[in-house]
Amino acid sequence: MEIRKLYAADAEKYWTLRLEAFQTFPEAFATSYEEAIARENPIQQAADGLEAVGSCTFGAFVDGELIGIVTLVQEMREKQRHRADIFGMFVKASHQGSGGGKALMSEAINYARNLKGIEKVNLSVVANNEGAKKLYSNLGFKVFGYEEKALKVGDVYLDEEHMVLFI
């Protein structure tokens, strides 16, 4: 498995995997599949996002196939520059349990450690996603908040746990 930073040239593979994530695990993301496919120029938007200042997206590759992604975004406001956030963590169902999630998260955490001034990394996870919560806890993240009805998928409400890792 290869873990590396994604660039604009990876936008099509990245966007294809994001769509799969939205379809496969709609409860895990704030963006719905329907919202995603309605975007204008989604590949260009993805390319721009992969090159955005303060943001770094990592991909996990197996035999050249992108099987997982995670994005780390550093806060830009002066009073929040000591923080970074994890977004869009996803590993294909066929590769879950293979160590890809841990490798992606470890790369993002190490990257954050090397950013000037970063003291903590935040993330949110759906409260019933036991696998993801176990991964994050094993990497040192601690729950600092619980939000009831954070997301609504159809008629189903989902709670989220907010986690932090001090680095």
TrEMBL record:
**A Pfam family hit:** Acetyltransf_1
Keywords noted in UniProt: Transferase
**UniProt-listed InterPro entries:** Acyl_CoA_acyltransferase, GNAT_dom, MshD_Acetyltransferase
Domain N-acetyltransferase, which positions?
1-167
GO-annotated molecular function:
acyltransferase activity, transferring groups other than amino-acyl groups
Please give the name of this protein: Acetyltransferase
